[in-house]
Amino acid sequence: MQRKGYRVTLAGDGAAALAAFDADPADLLLTDIRMPRKDGYALIAELRTRQPTLPVVIMTGHAAPDMVTVQPCAARTSVFTKPFKPALLLDAINDSLPAAKRRLL
Known about the structure:
Structural class: alpha/beta
CATH superfamily: Response regulator
Number of strands: 3
Strand order of the largest sheet: 1-2-3
CATH architecture: 3-Layer(aba) Sandwich
Number of helices: 3
Helix content: 25-40%
Radius of gyration: 13 Å
Oligomer: single chain
Order of helices and strands: HEHEEH
Shape: globular
CATH topology: Rossmann fold
């Protein structure tokens, strides 16, 4: 996938994502909800204890209508139910980042 000027760190599951964040903190978390070893909710909760204003973009095939009202997902979170248009995802990523980190896409 073309990265559109962003530096991306990949992780195969929630536990690996947490370890990657510990090694190199991110400006934004792009995650699924259903993952092995640590699901998206647990990952978001743990990362938000470390960085409370961390923007989160969730991609899921299992979204419940009230998902964004469930803590820890309520603040600074965008949710995309699969399938979605990649351009909308890129817009959400760009809009979620602080102005100094945004890229013109």
